[in-house]
Each structure stands twice: as C-alpha cells, then as structure tokens.
Please model this.
Amino acid sequence: MSSRKRISSALVGLVALVVLGWFGQDIFAESQSSGSVPGAAESGLPVEELSGLPAEAGKTWDLIERGGPFPYPGKDGSVFGNYEGELPAEKRGYYHEYTVPTPGERDRGARRLVTGSQHEVYYTNDHYESFVVVDTAG
Model:
C-alpha cells in the first residue's frame, strides 16, 4: 500500500472517530441527564428528585401510590388537559392531576403533581406555567 493511500485511510478513520465521538458524547450526556426517569427524554424538561421538592409533594405522591384518599375528591385524579402544551402532546385522558397542598393557602393553591399513563410524574408550582419531571426514586 502506498504512503498516500495509508495517509488517506488514516484521515478517513480519524474523521470517522471525531464524528462518532461528537455524536456519542451527545447520546451519552442525554442518557446520563435523563437516566431512566419516565418522561425526561420525551419532554426535554429538567429532572428534579422527589426529595428536592416541597415535603407536601412527597405526601401527595404517597397518596397517589396508595390510591387515596385525596384531600380534594373530584379534583384530585381528574384528567389534566395539558391545554398549555407544556407536557408532551398526548390524547385526552393520558394525564391526571393531583393537588400538592400549599401551607397557608385556603384553596388548592398552584402546586400540582401530574401523572402520565406511562408512569411519568411532573410537578408544577405555578399552576401549569412550568413543569419539572419528578424522579420518584430520589
């Protein structure tokens, strides 16, 4: 093999390694940031551990896992319409919302947990203007 062919082959190999390395880093970073938290990759939203949310969110999550009883029957567990479009688009009935009580509030307040049919959990503290994906294992 001539030295020109060896240099050309080496350059092609080097370019391939650089390209694979570039895209591989993106794939690795995405898998590290979203892990196996349902809804994280699909939504593009930041992930927050349940333990990092207000204590009332953890209590609401416990109620969800137990199936209630909920403090606002008829409201908690109702279909969340996602009219704001902050969560991934899904058919009506896919998401359900639950009140996260706010100390000092006389009504339901602005905090909610929203669950998806594929075990996603989202939290909002500003009445659906923004969300984070909740890592319920954390």
User: Anything to note?
Assistant: The chain is about 35% helix and 15% strand. The mean pLDDT is 83. Helices lie at 3-34, 40-43, 55-66. The longest helix spans residues 3-34.
